[in-house]
Protein: Phosphatidylglycerophosphatase A
Amino acid sequence: MIQPLEPTVSPEAKKPYSLDSEKVESATREWLLKRGVTLDKIAEIVMFLQQKYFPELTMEYCIYNVEQVLNKREVQNAVLTGIQLDIMAEEGKLIPALQEMVENDESLYGVDEVLAFSIVNVYGSIGFTNFGYVDKLKPGILEKLNDKQDGQIHTFLDDIVGAIAAAASSRIAHRKQAEREKEMEQLRQK
Amino acid sequence: MIQPLEPTVSPEAKKPYSLDSEKVESATREWLLKRGVTLDKIAEIVMFLQQKYFPELTMEYCIYNVEQVLNKREVQNAVLTGIQLDIMAEEGKLIPALQEMVENDESLYGVDEVLAFSIVNVYGSIGFTNFGYVDKLKPGILEKLNDKQDGQIHTFLDDIVGAIAAAASSRIAHRKQAEREKEMEQLRQK
Amino acid sequence: MIQPLEPTVSPEAKKPYSLDSEKVESATREWLLKRGVTLDKIAEIVMFLQQKYFPELTMEYCIYNVEQVLNKREVQNAVLTGIQLDIMAEEGKLIPALQEMVENDESLYGVDEVLAFSIVNVYGSIGFTNFGYVDKLKPGILEKLNDKQDGQIHTFLDDIVGAIAAAASSRIAHRKQAEREKEMEQLRQK
Amino acid sequence: MIQPLEPTVSPEAKKPYSLDSEKVESATREWLLKRGVTLDKIAEIVMFLQQKYFPELTMEYCIYNVEQVLNKREVQNAVLTGIQLDIMAEEGKLIPALQEMVENDESLYGVDEVLAFSIVNVYGSIGFTNFGYVDKLKPGILEKLNDKQDGQIHTFLDDIVGAIAAAASSRIAHRKQAEREKEMEQLRQK
Structure:
């Protein structure tokens, strides 16, 4: 299964490994969809978090910022890894001790939060507060993901979606500041 | 100001440096008090966070857990460093660019959250959610610390107090689990 | 697969879920062994890291500290999750885009480091340096785990083992300081 | 000292606060220089870390990547805050318990590593290893910053400089991957 260090020339030889970033990115988008998470649903949480600070905020701009977050490699890696663990738990294939914790969204497990934090961190520590807030209130799709009645397991995905929304909110806050400073600069130059 | 590597014998010589953990601990308690933060006030936030999960929770037990958090070296170091920066900002002594951000609790500053997270982390990632939640809702003393009308600056302290409360909540969750498992063990042995 | 909220009384009914900490702990020890990692091998890395600071350090004391680290819930959860992902990669069962990255220990993947950090963090930020150092030098068993010639995949485990050794080193540093201060206290009292 | 919520019109009135990102950025550059840290010196550590992976690496490209890291708000905030604490320690103005720890670069202090990590994190967890490695080996300017013989205190700055170099290294690794994939894409299209 492991690539030979010196690729052989037999016709069946696997190609030497090389990271395929596009494949990782498209798998991320595809798997979010397969697990019921559209960009719109994440953008709704962003709107929930940011509307009071930026009343002019549009859903289009929220979706755009969610997309920018999803373009980040660290985010894609955390999304795929978390969804993978959710799926394996659904199939009952995890090590029993781990299976029980993931299956039951054990509150003392914590690895779901650890993965979520590698997402939030993408735009710095200012997103921590927003992540914790939505993780507690479970607005919009987070409530559905956290509803354990439909046989699906989203122990990782609900934290991941909250983290993407928190990161997108941080991104918006940074951009809005940049816009504000640009406008003030233009005012000064008049 | 720096200690000589080989301590000299002159009578005025400074003692060679050696960390005095007790001094750091008592300074932490003292400075929290000086800045208006009693253990009770932090314990109230813990109660706010944990009451719904553990209805039998007492203020005494919340205070006890806050004290255990404050016994941790990492927590003491973050508390003292944060309060120090708040004080320097009050005295207007920071580098001007930094002074403005700390003085105005700039939401894009983020170093206050970074310090807070080194506190929350003391009992693992399960505290992140509680930290974000109280940092948003500002219950109890957090509202007062965040009220910028009295000339005092608590840019770091309000995050620090929320983080101590979140860490104490995590500690309680871990201990309650241990108690529960002990009881079940005793039931099995009957 | 999800536990019913109200346990039914049929004889085949699954017991209502309750975290079994002992099961998680013993699975952690067992799986480390199954993957070729003994406490001795981790203790050797601790010795490598700490010997120059504490020449009196014994292997027994290193092993003892590794055991204390392994008693921490956050550490157990990260170990089981990481080993699980390594095993699934060995079996070729991951989502293809993820499979390629884990199988090839892709340096831009980073989720292995994220999990490792939740371990290092258990005794605070002072362990980060030791983690990075052994992750680069790969002393002792880390070299073997990182050797991709034997068909086994240890993308997560090599970082996890380095992180446990770094955390044990931090624990030793904290304890040695406590001993030192106790001795000085006794000297003062004579 | 706190800004009035409604700006008054008296001629001496302070302008209402608004974050001035350019001021923060130029203060960051200026203070690094004042403390003896040029972009070249940081770039040398990047070269030390990355040369074996990318033999074609030039100092110009290393400097460019250091500059990109320094353009990040989180990095600027951590740099200014860390240097501020170093300066206050040099002037002996910290709370005594804190003064002793910062002045003596106490290894159990850890807040310097916490700040450093908010810098490393800017390009994800892949930088942790490089940070730990240079923090241990102290190549180039890190040795000088860590030399406690000249009366200057760089308890925070040495970790900060290592963190900037580690972040720049991560940035290079991400960009080199992008270049590689672009080239392969072009080869396929021929």
Notes: The domain at 22-189 of chain C is CATH 1.10.3760.10 (YutG-like). Chain C is about 65% helix and 0% strand.
